[in-house]
Amino acid sequence: MALLIPWTTQTKAQCDAADMCSITVVASDSYGDGWDGSTLSIHQGSTLIGNVSVTASSSTYTFQICPDSIQLSWISNSWYDSECAFTIYDRGGGIIFSTSNCYYYSGTFATVNATCPTCFIPLSFSEVSNTPTSATLQWTDTSSNLMQIAYG
pTM surpassing 0.90? Predict the structure, then answer.
Protein backbone atom coordinates (compact mmCIF):
# COMPACT_ATOMS: atom_id res chain seq x y z
CA MET A 1 0.00 0.00 0.00
CA ALA A 2 1.46 3.35 -1.01
CA LEU A 3 1.00 6.32 1.24
CA LEU A 4 1.92 9.61 -0.38
CA ILE A 5 3.25 12.34 1.84
CA PRO A 6 1.69 15.76 1.02
CA TRP A 7 5.07 17.50 0.64
CA THR A 8 6.38 14.85 -1.74
CA THR A 9 6.80 16.73 -4.99
CA GLN A 10 8.59 16.41 -8.25
CA THR A 11 10.14 19.31 -10.04
CA LYS A 12 10.82 19.28 -13.76
CA ALA A 13 14.14 17.69 -14.59
CA GLN A 14 16.46 19.31 -17.14
CA CYS A 15 15.84 17.24 -20.29
CA ASP A 16 13.18 16.83 -22.97
CA ALA A 17 10.06 15.02 -21.82
CA ALA A 18 10.57 12.43 -24.58
CA ASP A 19 13.95 11.49 -23.06
CA MET A 20 12.62 10.99 -19.52
CA CYS A 21 11.86 7.64 -17.94
CA SER A 22 10.59 6.42 -14.60
CA ILE A 23 12.31 5.07 -11.52
CA THR A 24 10.44 3.28 -8.76
CA VAL A 25 11.39 3.51 -5.09
CA VAL A 26 10.13 0.72 -2.84
CA ALA A 27 10.65 1.84 0.75
CA SER A 28 9.97 -0.03 3.97
CA ASP A 29 10.30 0.06 7.74
CA SER A 30 11.16 -3.25 9.42
CA TYR A 31 9.30 -2.37 12.63
CA GLY A 32 6.23 -1.24 10.69
CA ASP A 33 5.80 2.20 12.25
CA GLY A 34 7.28 4.34 9.46
CA TRP A 35 10.46 6.33 9.15
CA ASP A 36 9.52 8.73 11.98
CA GLY A 37 10.11 11.78 9.80
CA SER A 38 13.36 10.67 8.17
CA THR A 39 13.45 11.31 4.43
CA LEU A 40 15.24 10.12 1.30
CA SER A 41 15.69 12.98 -1.20
CA ILE A 42 16.48 12.29 -4.84
CA HIS A 43 18.14 15.00 -6.96
CA GLN A 44 19.51 15.36 -10.46
CA GLY A 45 22.06 18.13 -10.16
CA SER A 46 20.30 20.97 -8.34
CA THR A 47 16.82 19.72 -9.32
CA LEU A 48 14.79 17.97 -6.64
CA ILE A 49 13.18 14.92 -8.24
CA GLY A 50 11.31 13.89 -5.11
CA ASN A 51 11.22 13.05 -1.42
CA VAL A 52 10.45 9.60 -0.04
CA SER A 53 9.25 8.67 3.43
CA VAL A 54 7.27 5.82 4.97
CA THR A 55 4.43 6.31 7.45
CA ALA A 56 3.62 2.63 8.07
CA SER A 57 5.38 -0.55 6.95
CA SER A 58 5.99 0.28 3.26
CA SER A 59 5.43 2.77 0.46
CA THR A 60 6.09 2.80 -3.28
CA TYR A 61 6.89 5.94 -5.26
CA THR A 62 7.44 6.54 -8.97
CA PHE A 63 9.37 9.54 -10.30
CA GLN A 64 10.29 10.75 -13.79
CA ILE A 65 14.02 11.32 -14.36
CA CYS A 66 16.44 12.26 -17.10
CA PRO A 67 18.89 9.56 -18.21
CA ASP A 68 21.75 10.72 -16.00
CA SER A 69 23.10 10.21 -12.51
CA ILE A 70 20.97 10.83 -9.42
CA GLN A 71 22.12 11.97 -6.01
CA LEU A 72 20.66 10.37 -2.89
CA SER A 73 20.45 12.32 0.38
CA TRP A 74 19.29 11.11 3.77
CA ILE A 75 17.69 13.50 6.24
CA SER A 76 17.51 11.76 9.59
CA ASN A 77 14.81 12.67 12.06
CA SER A 78 14.80 9.47 14.09
CA TRP A 79 16.81 7.25 16.40
CA TYR A 80 15.54 4.25 14.42
CA ASP A 81 17.06 4.73 10.95
CA SER A 82 18.34 1.14 11.14
CA GLU A 83 14.71 0.06 10.52
CA CYS A 84 14.58 1.98 7.22
CA ALA A 85 15.21 0.26 3.89
CA PHE A 86 14.67 1.08 0.23
CA THR A 87 15.40 -0.15 -3.27
CA ILE A 88 15.41 2.02 -6.40
CA TYR A 89 14.52 0.29 -9.68
CA ASP A 90 14.96 1.57 -13.22
CA ARG A 91 12.08 1.27 -15.69
CA GLY A 92 13.29 -2.15 -16.78
CA GLY A 93 13.26 -3.61 -13.27
CA GLY A 94 17.03 -3.37 -12.73
CA ILE A 95 18.24 -2.30 -9.31
CA ILE A 96 19.89 1.13 -9.28
CA PHE A 97 20.52 1.23 -5.51
CA SER A 98 19.43 -0.83 -2.53
CA THR A 99 19.99 -0.76 1.22
CA SER A 100 18.49 -2.59 4.17
CA ASN A 101 19.71 -0.12 6.83
CA CYS A 102 19.88 3.70 6.62
CA TYR A 103 21.50 4.20 10.03
CA TYR A 104 24.91 5.35 8.74
CA TYR A 105 23.61 7.70 6.03
CA SER A 106 23.69 11.46 6.46
CA GLY A 107 23.38 14.20 3.86
CA THR A 108 24.25 13.28 0.27
CA PHE A 109 25.59 9.74 0.53
CA ALA A 110 25.55 8.37 -3.02
CA THR A 111 25.62 9.37 -6.67
CA VAL A 112 24.42 6.55 -8.88
CA ASN A 113 23.96 6.08 -12.61
CA ALA A 114 20.28 6.15 -13.54
CA THR A 115 19.99 5.37 -17.22
CA CYS A 116 16.79 4.72 -19.11
CA PRO A 117 17.39 1.17 -20.33
CA THR A 118 15.94 -0.07 -23.60
CA CYS A 119 16.87 -3.66 -22.81
CA PHE A 120 14.59 -4.86 -20.03
CA ILE A 121 15.27 -7.56 -17.46
CA PRO A 122 12.81 -10.47 -17.64
CA LEU A 123 11.08 -11.51 -14.43
CA SER A 124 10.55 -15.07 -13.17
CA PHE A 125 13.12 -16.49 -15.58
CA SER A 126 13.28 -20.26 -15.30
CA GLU A 127 14.19 -23.41 -17.17
CA VAL A 128 11.19 -25.61 -17.96
CA SER A 129 13.12 -28.54 -19.42
CA ASN A 130 16.38 -29.38 -21.17
CA THR A 131 18.04 -32.05 -23.26
CA PRO A 132 21.66 -32.34 -24.45
CA THR A 133 20.74 -30.28 -27.54
CA SER A 134 17.89 -27.97 -26.47
CA ALA A 135 16.27 -26.11 -23.62
CA THR A 136 12.81 -24.69 -22.96
CA LEU A 137 12.81 -21.44 -21.01
CA GLN A 138 10.04 -19.23 -19.66
CA TRP A 139 9.87 -15.69 -18.25
CA THR A 140 7.60 -12.73 -17.73
CA ASP A 141 8.18 -9.86 -20.16
CA THR A 142 8.65 -6.54 -18.32
CA SER A 143 8.39 -4.32 -21.38
CA SER A 144 5.85 -3.52 -24.00
CA ASN A 145 8.27 -4.83 -26.64
CA LEU A 146 8.87 -8.42 -27.64
CA MET A 147 12.06 -9.84 -26.17
CA GLN A 148 14.69 -11.50 -28.32
CA ILE A 149 16.91 -14.35 -27.17
CA ALA A 150 20.41 -14.61 -28.59
CA TYR A 151 22.30 -17.88 -28.24
CA GLY A 152 25.87 -18.73 -29.05
Answer: no
